Amino acid sequence: MADRDRQEGEHPNGSVYRVAGALTITRAATTQREIDALPDPLTIDLSEINRMDTVGAWIIYRTVRDRGAKVIGASRDEVSLLEQVGEFDKPARVLPEEPGGAIRVFKELGEWVVETGTTLVGLLGFFGATLIGFANVIRRPRRFRVNAVIQRFDVVGVRALGIIGLMSFLIGIVIAQQGSVQLAQFGAQIYTINLIGRITVRELGTLMTAIMVAGRSGSAFAAQLGTMKITEEIDAMRTIGVSPVEALVIPRIISAVVMMPLLSFWAMLMALLGGGVFVWFSLEIPPITYIQRLQEVTPITDLWVGLIKAPVFGFIIALAGCFQGMLVEGNSEEVGTRTTTAVVQSIFMVIVLDSVFAVFFSNIGWI
Amino acid sequence: MTEIPKKLDPRTVPDGCKPVIEVRGLRNSFGEQVIHQDLDLTVCRGEILGVVGGSGTGKSVLLRSIIGLQTPDEGAIDVLGENMIGRDEDEAKNIRRRWGILFQNGALFSTLTVAENVEVPIREYFPHLKPPLLDEIASYKIAMGGLPANAGPKFPSELSGGMIKRAGLARALALDPELLFLDEPTAGLDPIAAAAFDELIRSLQKRLDLTVFLITHDLDTLHSICDRIAVLADKKVVAVGTIPELLALDHPWIQEYFNGPRGRAAADSYEHEVTA
Questions:
Q1: What number is the ipTM of this complex?
Q2: What is the distance in angstroms between the Cα of A199 and the nearest Cα belonging to chain B?
Q3: Between chain A and chain B, how many beta carbons pairs sit less than 8 Å apart?
Q4: Residue B12 covered by a domain
Q5: Which of B136, B179, B180 to mutate to test the interface with A (most CBs of A within 10 A)?
Q6: In sequence order, what are the residues at sequence separation of 6 or more whose Cβ sits closer than 8 angstroms to the Cβ of residue A180?
Q7: Residues of A in contact with B117 (CB under 8 A)
Q8: Cys-Cys link to B110, which of A248, A289, A331, B64 (CB 3.0-4.6 A)?
Q9: Each residue of A183-218: pLDDT tens digit?
Q10: Is the pLDDT of residue A15 over 90?
Q11: How far apart are the first and last CA of chain A?
Q12: Cβ of A55 and B152 within 8 Å?
């Protein structure tokens, strides 16, 4: 259609662009290409068009502006539309200004350093605010929000039982299976039970639970608080006189601190069960022998090691989640990035602390 | 309550009217709660139709039904001569590119700058447009929306409420629509900004020959720019007409709305302006 509607011709005084039909956004790309292909001086003949929208008018306008083209055959309406779009010729940038090259590298590096610094200071400040919040709650126990905490217990703890139990059960099987394959080389398959008992109770039960809670609840804390920040709910709370730390952060921290040891213990039991099922069917060690052997080889201190770490991990996960949530500002994308950061930070800190705990407990003789 | 005269009946199509939106026998409900029942409305080409109604009378639901975000229980809706109910996405796209919508809170994409927001519909429908022309188009649309050029590279979170509305309007105008839907365009603006926004809508409507469907609570907007006003009450449009025509009815809600203290004040200031 476009081919029939337009004609280009050599004119004694340069080229002529003649459009017919509708000069609208639908044909904008083609029209611009055709105009670009014609040499100066250019005359545009609009006598045969029947419809023009602002994009069509803009293309004509910019050709006149940039190339000094002459427009002929325009009706009164078209002339007025051309004048009107001309009034709106105020070039705007599409993206914010960015410095280029080396300066940008330094700028981004600098921003990163400053941001990391402020995040650390902010986290410290947030930790302090949380302690003050706890102190206030202890001073005035009536302000403690029992319902909020119990509701969190349900979300963080009870609803996680299924997935954490299943995960631990499978991990128990994997440890037993891999352990028995390796130990069989020395004919020491019976030591599979030592492996299962000590590694799940002392390390993996708590660690895997912490990772699961960080992914399930730490991320939820960050997203919930971040969304409340965007919708100004947190500002509203402050102006009413409700402290967001007391109302939102403390229930979440308490729930994570209380639920982590319970979930860890559950995870240990399920992993032992998984290992037990495997040794029963694969190594033909009956359950009663398995339980007796577990009691003999796993010292009670292993259980303390596992359970002492759990509330600390819970505290870190909840703190990082709430802190990142409170940092959200501006747009919805930030909720996503802050949530990711919360999960990554809490898992990282959990693993760092876990190694510190490992050294500490070994040194005090709980080997 | 008197009978609604035939001229103001929502089922009557005015003389010389080319319908752009036609709603017939619309019914909407959420669970047990019926929002609309036997709702009729015609919007004519080239007019600014204001829709008023108390809170909760389903103004926004009506808008969402017309633009296809909500499927009604019953009824027929024609927009720009096309039936809107039960169409597939591809067909609907052809109608969608012929209208522009300004949502109540702007609904700008928060991760894109104002200029990029304006470019979104253009890129979607005309992917062949190249950046220099595309950016220029975005620039003049931003200027048309009444924003300064330095608003282009800003993110929505950096804009004031009035600027967000203007940016939303610039995006609604991106594809040179024939039909413009505005959901409470002046809500949340100060009176000066609201008057300027009314003026902007009026002048754009004249320049670009737009049909405007406007939901509002703003009595000043109704007086100054609306050609006709549709009153939503009792789950349907009870009457459509100019303010003097509506005032002649003795419908309780209409009387209270236009003759209440705020209604009188708006009418007085408007008369004052016209006679001065």
A1: 0.75
A2: 46
A3: 95
A4: no
A5: B136
A6: A189, A192, A278, A279, A282, A283
A7: none
A8: A331
A9: 999 988 889 999 999 999 999 999 999 999 999 999
A10: no
A11: 85
A12: no
